[in-house]
Amino acid sequence: MSESFDLIVIGAGPGGYVCAIRAAQLGIKVACVEKRATLGGTCLNVGCIPSKALLHSSEHYEETKHKLADHGVLVEGVKIDLARMLARKGEVVSANVKGVEFLFKKNKVTWLKGEATIPAPGQVAVEGTTYAAKNIVIATGSESIPLPGVEVDEKQIVTSTGGLELEKVPGHLVVIGGGYIGLELGSVWRRLGAEVTVVEFLDRLVPTMDTEVGKQFERVLGKQGIKTKLKTKVTGAKKGKDGVTLTLEPAAGGAAETLKADVVLVAIGRRAYTAGLGLKEIGVALDDRGRVVTDGHYATNIPGLYAIGDAIVGPMLAHKAEEEGVAVAEILAGQHGHVNYNAIPGVVYTWPEVASIGETEEQLKARGASYNVGKFPFTANARARAMGDTDGFVKILADKTTDRVLGAHIIGADAGTLIAEIAIAMEFGASAEDVARTCHAHPSLNESVKEAALAVAGRALHI
Ligand code: FAD
Ligand code: NAI
């Protein structure tokens, strides 16, 4: 046996690297194994960060080309340098992953480079060396779900990874799956000039979000030129020199049709990734979707073995993985780490953005809850009008009896930032009145949150 550690974390995504840093802060001797050449996992390398870099760059282009003239700013000859845009995205990723490497050094986290296996409880093998570990945290993340009959080559038929690297703007991009990835990357390439069609199996986009928000989202994306084919499934793909021919069928069955695409993006969800760890061999329980089964303290059925992030149940979001990383490190240090799963925001970083926290109206109805709704449109917000970004609204749901905020759903400019004030309100068990009586700066988009909170009691001031 080589060196031993108090804790070995497997995977250096936002779950794993944050867990390792927090453990080191608490005096735990910790190593983190990562097989990728750089730290940061899916999120920093091929997920959150590169997608947001391209969303920002493409938004600048769209704004310059189509929105600035309205503000009296005239720019002629606007062109895209896609190679530069992609290179910039690479620079942003590089700065971020190096940042994690710096944090590991600063906190004295040992990076064990290579692929980890767990030959036995309390042991982690990396590149032929076996290390002893009092505790092990699995933070191996997730991978794209493949679609039978639609074989990914990352050139003509791509996952998000290839969709972040297209060397030229496709004439027609068909996105399979109207969720987070499909709508964010669909927006990027639409702004850069592609015709975009989103094929979604269910009857609405982002089906996990509040229905009213989803419907408004579909209208706004439609105005931007994104076409949607709802209640439709893709049953096959034929690649040719001049593109891909997809076969589509109504989700409920019926006559097939074909759709031609230059590039197809498969974005029908992600699944836990634990391949090659040797979990079956040591008897770790997995659920029917391949996720590691854990208890309320992230412990698996094997003593000393824990799991967090995309590899376990829950929303596949970087900040959820981070919170779990912190919580499990604190639990291992004898503290009381915990995550409030009722207050995890979800944000789609399109323009306008869509943000959601807590329960949706559909969830409240399903559990028979009595609630009040407060809504405020951005058309009535002075700052949104000054910006020229009046699409969307803020919707707050509060308990009818106690007025406690149960959820909030926002579509509009900077919705992802606005939702943070509701996250804090919910963490403190605030009532809608607490939010409504908080002084909000004027003129700010946040005033729409205050107004929606006032509207819960039927007393919005500016509408
Ligand atoms: P990961 O980030 O997947 O990290 C797991 C790491 O473990 C990987 O680096 C992998 O190489 C490593 N690993 C796996 N097995 C082994 C092994 N045996 N040995 C060694 N290393 C191993 N979430 C958001 O919150 N906001 C966003 O804006 C956002 N945008 C996204 C955009 C895209 C295109 C994608 C694909 C995802 C996005 N996500 C976003 C989701 C987010 O990336 C994930 O929820 C998050 O990365 C999960 O973190 P994790 O630590 O659980 O796993
Ligand atoms: P998703 O779960 O968000 O959306 C997948 C969509 O595909 C759903 O609407 C689903 O109904 C549909 N679908 C499933 N099977 C289908 C089929 N056969 N044909 C047509 N449609 C089908 O998954 P996505 O977009 O792949 O992203 C994976 C995860 O990554 C997200 O759930 C999210 O957790 C995370 N992510 C988060 C982002 C953010 O926070 N901004 C951005 C990108 C990804």
From TrEMBL:
Required cofactor names: FAD
This protein's UniProt keywords: Disulfide bond, FAD, Flavoprotein, NAD, Oxidoreductase, Redox-active center
Origin: domain of life: Bacteria
Pfam entry (one): Pyr_redox_dim
EC number: 1.8.1.4
Residues annotated as transmembrane: none
Oxidoreductase in keyword set: yes
GO molecular function, one term: dihydrolipoyl dehydrogenase (NADH) activity
Cofactor, free-text remark: Binds 1 FAD per subunit.
Catalytic activity entry: N(6)-[(R)-dihydrolipoyl]-L-lysyl-[protein] + NAD(+) = N(6)-[(R)-lipoyl]-L-lysyl-[protein] + NADH + H(+)
The keyword Zinc-finger appears for this protein: no
Residues in FAD/NAD(P)-binding domain copies: 5-325
Domain Pyridine nucleotide-disulphide oxidoreductase dimerisation per the UniProt entry, residue ranges: 344-453
Protein family per UniProt: Belongs to the class-I pyridine nucleotide-disulfide oxidoreductase family.
Note in the entry: The active site is a redox-active disulfide bond.
PANTHER family registered for this protein in UniProt: DIHYDROLIPOYL DEHYDROGENASE, MITOCHONDRIAL, DISULFIDE OXIDOREDUCTASE
Protein name, as recorded: Dihydrolipoyl dehydrogenase
